[in-house]
TrEMBL record:
Protein name, UniProt field: Integrator complex subunit 5
Cellular compartments per GO CC: integrator complex
Organism: Sarcophilus harrisii (Tasmanian devil)
InterPro entries per UniProt: INTS5, INTS5_C, INTS5_N
Annotated GO biological process: snRNA 3'-end processing
A Pfam family the protein falls into: INTS5_C
Domain Integrator complex subunit 5 C-terminal: 357-1066
PANTHER family: INTEGRATOR COMPLEX SUBUNIT 5 (PTHR31697:SF2)
Integrator complex subunit 5 N-terminal domain sequence ranges: 97-319
Chain positions covered by the region annotation Disordered: 1-53, 327-351
Amino acid sequence: MRKLRPRGWAEARGRPVRPPRFIAGETEVPGGKRKGRAEPRSGPRGTSPVLLPQLLLPPFPQQRLPPGRCRGLGMVWAQAPRPEGPAAGAVLPLGAQELAQEIKAFLTGVDPVLGHQLSTRDHARCGLLLLRSLPPARAAVLDHLRGVFDESVRTHLATLDDVASTGPQHLRPPLPSHVPSGGPGLEDVIQEVQQVLSEFIRANPKAWAPVVSAWSIDLMGQLSSKYSGRHQRVPHAAGSLNELLQLWMGCRATRTLMDIYVQCLSALIGSCPDACVDALLDTSVQHSPHFDWVVAHIGSSFPGTIISRVLSCGLKDFCVHGGAGGGGGGAGGPPPTPSADAFPSTPAIPGEKRVPKIASVVGILGHLASRHGDSIRRELLRMFHESLAAGSGVRGSDPSLQATVPFLLQLAVMSPALLGTVSGELVDCLKPPSVLSQLQQHLQVFSREELDNMLSLAVHLVSQASGAGAYRLLQFLVDTAMPASVITPPGLAVPDAVREACDRLIQLLLLHLQKLVHNRGGSPGDGLLGPPPPPRPVPFLDALRSHVGELCGETLRLERKRFLWQHQLLGLLSVYTRPSCGPEALGHLLSRARTPEELSLATQLFAGLVVSLSGLLPLTLCSCLARVHAGTLLPPFTARLLRNLTLLVGWEQQGGEGPTALGARVGEAVSAQLPDLAPLLLHPEEEVAEAASSLLAICPFPQGALLPAQLLSLVRAGVSRFFASLRLHGPPGVSSASQLLIRLSQASSAGLKAVLQLLVEGALHRGNAELFGGEGEGGNENASATASGSASAYLLETNRRHTAAVPGPGGVWSVFHAGVIGRGLKPPRSAQSRSAQEVIYNTQSLLRLLVHCCGVSSGPAAGDRWAAPALSPEAAKAVAVTLVESVCPDAAGAELTWPPEDHARTTVERDLRIGRRFREHPLLFELLKLVAAAPPALCYCSVLLRGLLAALLGHWEASRHLDTSQSPWQLEASCTLVAVMAEGSLLPPTLGNMHEVFGQLAPFEVRLLLLSVWGFLREHGPLPQKFAFQPDRGRFARDFSREGGGAGGPHLAVLHSVLHRNIDRLGLFSGRFQAWPPSAPGPPQRPAP
């Protein structure tokens, strides 16, 4: 008997088969035996026991079979709708018997004719035939195709493992662009599946696209989760998303599923893509993060649609679940239990508890935020504005509009990426008062508990804000929470309810930040068994690191509540970012505070941080001084910083007045920064230098002696500051610099010598000489030299001619600077720019400072308030040595004994130079008087006294005037010289009084008297060994009576002869020049003129 060949069977199988008999509820297996209901095997070659009922279900709920007995599948085919379009005509309809054979073969996985198991390829093609011919079999066929795709993926990954295992890790070949997957036959079967489903989707997208998209997207999620981390070539989901995307798109099976879903979404994108987006969200919830590569690819392909539809679907689902739990079981029940089957069936079980989709929404938008952040931001702001514009503030309006604000808050809480995307424009969005009013009306419909929850979310969101939007958000909240001002325009006033809400929000934010900052180290038990966990970051405080200066400036404005909030925030920021922001904030407050009230903010900040931050003040000063020396801290702020530090140290030294909690430590911190503070005394800005001088004048020095380098730098800077203040402000402005130099001179003997030496050298320097009546810089010699443009050429020629000889004192190249041959004498000396009173005032200021530095703190005269200050001989000796080195350096170290008068002929040039220096610097005579007040210090100025005396002798010898009034300077210099030598005990009192009559003598007579002085000093040399210390007077003194002829002896004869010659005018002075015996009373006092 000829076997029947049903239509479609040969096309599907390619060989004749025997049509199996089919009885409802029974199946016929090979061998002719009948069994009960079929029990096919599970796996890719069989179907699950639930497939048969699914085969008999129509594809749409409204076309279910009527209850009763099914007389044949022909009735099913007649009642079920056939696919429309080309797919319906691809295969001719099968008869009932042929269709029954196909169903039996598909259910059992056994060839009805030959009786052997069907191959994966044949089994899949049998299912495709049923999919074309029997639409009710759609769910069963699609479920069977899951196994086909699963086997294809497994074979693909196995092939990649074989390729990767051919060599060591560093020699493995790169991933092939395409490896044939699934072995022979599965690749073409997968291609056929794609063709069939594509035809159905093109023919009837409304009916097929939702089902096929849900099937393909769910299958991709299951495959991604199943093989994640189980194969060598599949990277973990926490790794690179690009690697996952490259791997799965290189597999033919997963790439086909992706193409099918994209086709479904493209088909519905113009009408209603909610079904496809819902499937994407559901799968993302179940299989994240293994499913992220699918989301990334689809989102990049349809950014606009995915963003808008994902947000729309998420909002709808949020309304259903009420937002409870933040997307983790919003209905309040437990999450659904996962099925034991690797591939559960697609249709949802009625009554199953759904998982909220907000987590999936967050994941999808998080993937898209990097490339499509602008689109996401615009969509989120659009939803927000639409909810405010459409919301009436009355219960019963659109639930989705009422839930938009809580939904957006929940999104931002769950995704920092979304928060960062929208935070930049959030302030601009909320700035208009009308928006705040609408928001306040919109939130009136919520209960108190719901408002508190949203406020907590808002506090958390602000603490997680990052980037530039964080500081703008803080300013917006503070400005909104500030009470209204009387000058605020009526239209810009913020409602009181909004202001109170912002006030409460700021207070809760500060409390929340305080908990985060002080609890960020973890629990006490963390790190016992391993390294401690890293501190938890606070993005809001991280974003405020770069705005510490602005926060300090706002705090110092002292605006009611604002400065309290920002001051507290500065403290939290300092503790959080220690040790960087604490010193910076304290430095800003110290450098910007203008009043004691503002300065108290710095002390309060320090009091709050001193427990948490050790070494805060030293770090603050180091950072501030580093900014000063780098030029980043402007001079006004530098001066203010130094003045505030001076005020704090002064409060400490006043015995507790002022905020001494900070002042007690400022002195120690400042003393440690002396090397960095000393250069500030030379700052080009006067206010900075003056402030530094005031600070150093009262700050304590380090414990122990100062290092020589520190001491010398401080002395140099202090001396320079003294002369600069004297030039700019006069004697009243040198108090701080004088106090600093006095303290430095008392620090050590080396400091005393350095101060005295630099003061004397500085006073005689041409740059400062004009302060004390001397010739300043840019004298007449320089003016005459620059009068001719060829002066430099003459100097060059002169140097070229005389390079073979070295000019020395008294040599043939010595030049007396009287003028230039061919140009005449030097111009006369210019008049002094300062008045005589000012010169005297400046000179007294310098001498007062020198006296304080040279003074002694013990002795008989130390306790006498009205007695002359006792000077230290060693200090006066330092001044004397410095004078010699400054006036005549080549005579430094010369012998103290006086040579004969004829010896002066060999030192004419030196003597003239010494005389010229004394004439240029009247201060030298005052300094000699100072040295003479502490005998025997004047002995060390012997070379200067000898040179000056020789210069005066030469002048009086050459003078042809009848009286000395024609040479006023020489007369005054002669008188002062004799008086100084008498004060310094180089001359006895009888000879020391002869200067009283110089003004009434002729020049030759003055010369005779000065020659007698020279002779006395030659016989009785000015040696320190001739002085003895007298305890009752507390000073060294010289007893001339013990020296032979020490009272004057034969040297008084010339004086007496001059007195006798001018007895008519000098008779009254004769008693002043008598050598009185030691037991006799002293000489009479000088008569009054």
